[in-house]
Design brief:
Number of strands: 14
Strand order of the largest sheet: 4-3-5-13-12-11
Order of helices and strands: EEEEEEHEEHHHEEEEEHEHH
Helix content: 25-40%
Distance between the termini: 30 Å
Structural class: alpha+beta
Shape: globular
Length: 254
Amino acid sequence: MDEIKIEKTKSGFRLAIPLKSQGKFRCKNRKKSTEYGIGFAPRTEALTTNSYVEWQIGYDAKVDDVKSGKKETSLTKQTFIGANGFEKYLYELSEIIWNLSKAKMIEKKQIKELISEINSFSFFLQENFQIQMNQKGTETINGMKSVRSEISLPTFTFDADEKDEFFTEISIQKQQYATGVQPMLYVIMPAQSFDNANDIIGKTSSQTPFGYYTISTKERAARFLKVILYFGLCSERHKHDVLEILKIIQNYAF
């Protein structure tokens, strides 16, 4: 399955993140955080100091998906009703924040303040940014004349200022199965942010299949809280969902 692993350690929690280019994980290369990135197949091509994992992180799972084995979560006692009407469990990002809260690496006061901040949001990315198509002239390809256009996807990068740490990226993209656009949030994990960076760089994922990232400080724990904050920026629906999740954590994780 397409899952991370969360393991309790003496110093905190260790995440095992697959180094692969399939499902919700993509290995890419880029020299700067603001570049688009070029994907590659890590099973056959070695990772470098410019490599990173683009992780399409999630925060909830439908109850039916967990019961059918499609997704895994350790948190099945509390549920909430998502903005789409489905009954859901806390999952992945929410599970990480739950565990950090139980371990007192995140304080109840932080959750309360985050709920208040997200509640105040009235401007959302999905409702205010659109994909732009810009014409760039004509191109003749094998004798056939065409009009060349370039698509611009509004993209927002957060917390990319700290070297060798993960950061968050939100891109406005076409909806896959409906009309309109949707914000897609990714956690960007540079190869050098992993505990086992020396075993990753210069090797393929066949040799080193996982990158390990240990949340051992309150500062690192707070970075994951920021990710759920950024989800609250994405749309009204995301705001609804993350507020429901944070209320569960506030009421049951301390």
